[in-house]
């Protein structure tokens, strides 16, 4: 539940702001303790600013963090690898796959207990029975998304009925919206209406540029906020003006792009790194793995050779079947590379399921 209220906004990490109390569903996000469960890329709204990636947008796929899910166990395992205290269910629009959402709520609550906090981020939907089912299956918090072009008609919008119903059913109820630059007055009015209707919190997300929305944003005159950020110029200033100009019972939380990447994502990656590290890998301060890599035709044969010929400890040389290569502890490969007739590298990669490579340096 959202409780105590402050009358002036508080500055949080990396440009985030808070008026009132932080929504319960946000507490475990910052420390990286919340599983991100993407339940479908299906959505009928077609928001021009949607940042969902090309491989997910419009595709009915499920991801637990960066892992494409093929079984319930994948979801459980990924949650354990980050010691998750909760889950955020998102999409696409999760209400397109209602039964799937209910299944995962039940799965997670059964596996981790009722204290495992689950919030749902969803758009408008017609079936009010879904609210009843969500509460019955154990959802803790719901966050409604509404495109900016519909903010002015919020008083007559069906989504307010859904919000009132969710609150009656005992769900912590809020809205989560983007912050397009220059819409201070529209957001002010919207916040007042939501507050008057008993909505408990409003989450505002900094407008972000992605591979899938940058053209749409550019054609509408939006500009990047700098060389090293995904944020759109002016979004932070708009959010600050909104938080400094309200006096409501409802909490408002602005989450910056740099907080999502520099705090939330980084902490989650560090947690996964600690739980998945192998003896031949080094963890950097950012949670990435540094290791040596040898590209060769027969990695198993080469592994046997260097263990026998150069007394390399077995745990410091492993065959990566997925990438078809030999991995060797970086400090070992730096000495061995001149003796091997193969391409040798020091690589840095994320400890996530997709194992995205950040850098590769030849030896």
SSE order and pairing:
Blueprint: E1 10-11, E2 17-19, E3 34-38, E4 63-64, E5 67-68, H1 72-81, E6 86-90, H2 98-112, E7 117-122, H3 129-137, E8 141-144, H4 158-168, E9 172-179, H5 184-196, E10 201-206, H6 214-219, H7 235-244, E11 251-255, H8 257-276, E12 282-283, E13 289-295, H9 299-310, E14 317-320, E15 325-328, H10 330-336, E16 343-349, E17 357-362
Parallel strand pairs: 3-6, 6-7, 7-8, 8-9, 9-10, 10-11
Antiparallel strand pairs: 1-2, 2-11, 3-4, 4-5, 12-13, 13-15, 13-16, 14-15, 16-17
Helix pairs in contact: 2-3, 5-7
What would your notes on this structure say?
By secondary structure, this protein is an alpha/beta fold. It has 2 domains: 10-272, Alpha-Beta Barrel (TIM Barrel); 278-362, Alpha-Beta Plaits (2-Layer Sandwich), CATH 3.30.70. It contains 10 helices and 17 strands. It has helices at residues 72-81, 98-112, 129-137, 158-168, 184-196, 214-219, 235-244, 257-276, 299-310, 330-336; strands spanning 10-11, 17-19, 34-38, 63-64, 67-68, 86-90, 117-122, 141-144, 172-179, 201-206, 251-255, 282-283, 289-295, 317-320, 325-328, 343-349, 357-362. The strands form 2 sheets. It has an 11-stranded mixed beta sheet. Strands 12, 13, 14, 15, 16 and 17 form a 6-stranded antiparallel beta sheet that branches. The longest helix has 20 residues, at 257-276. The protein is elongated. The N and C termini lie far apart (55 Å). The model is unreliable at 1-6 (pLDDT under 50).
């Amino acid at each position: 539940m959202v409780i105590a209220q402050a009358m002036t906004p508080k500055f949080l990490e990396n440009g985030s702001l808070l008026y009132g109390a932080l929504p319960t569903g946000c507490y475990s996000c910052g420390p990286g303790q919340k599983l991100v469960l993407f339940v479908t890329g299906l959505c009928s709204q077609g928001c021009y600013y949607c940042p969902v990636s090309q491989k997910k947008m419009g595709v009915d796929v499920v991801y637990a963090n960066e892992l494409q899910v093929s079984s319930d166990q994948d979801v459980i395992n990924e949650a354990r690898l980050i010691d998750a205290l909760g889950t955020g269910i998102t999409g696409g629009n999760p209400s397109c796959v209602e039964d799937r959402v209910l299944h995962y709520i039940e799965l997670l609550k059964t596996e981790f207990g009722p204290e495992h906090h689950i919030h749902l981020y969803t758009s408008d939907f017609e079936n009010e029975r879904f609210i009843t089912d969500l509460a019955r299956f154990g959802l803790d918090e719901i966050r409604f998304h509404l495109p900016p072009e519909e903010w002015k008609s919020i008083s007559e919008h069906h989504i307010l009925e859904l919000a009132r119903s969710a609150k009656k059913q005992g769900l912590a109820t809020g809205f989560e919206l983007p912050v397009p630059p220059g819409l201070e007055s529209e957001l002010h009015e919207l916040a007042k209406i939501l507050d008057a209707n008993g909505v408990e919190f409003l989450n505002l997300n900094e407008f972000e540029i992605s591979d899938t929305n940058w053209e749409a944003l550019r054609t509408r005159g939006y500009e990047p906020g700098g060389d090293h950020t995904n944020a759109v110029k002016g979004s932070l200033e708009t959010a600050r003006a909104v938080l400094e100009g309200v006096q409501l019972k409802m909490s408002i939380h602005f989450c910056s792009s740099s907080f999502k990447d520099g705090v939330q994502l980084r902490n989650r990656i560090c947690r996964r790194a600690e739980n998945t590290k192998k003896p031949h890998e080094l963890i950097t301060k950012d949670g990435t793995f540094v290791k040596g890599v040898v590209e060769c035709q027969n990695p198993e044969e080469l592994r046997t050779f260097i263990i026998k010929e150069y007394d390399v400890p077995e745990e410091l040389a492993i065959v990566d079947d997925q990438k078809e290569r030999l991995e060797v502890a970086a400090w070992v490969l730096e000495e061995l590379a001149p003796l091997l007739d193969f391409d040798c590298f020091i690589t840095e990669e994320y400890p996530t399921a997709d194992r995205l490579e950040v850098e590769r340096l030849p030896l």
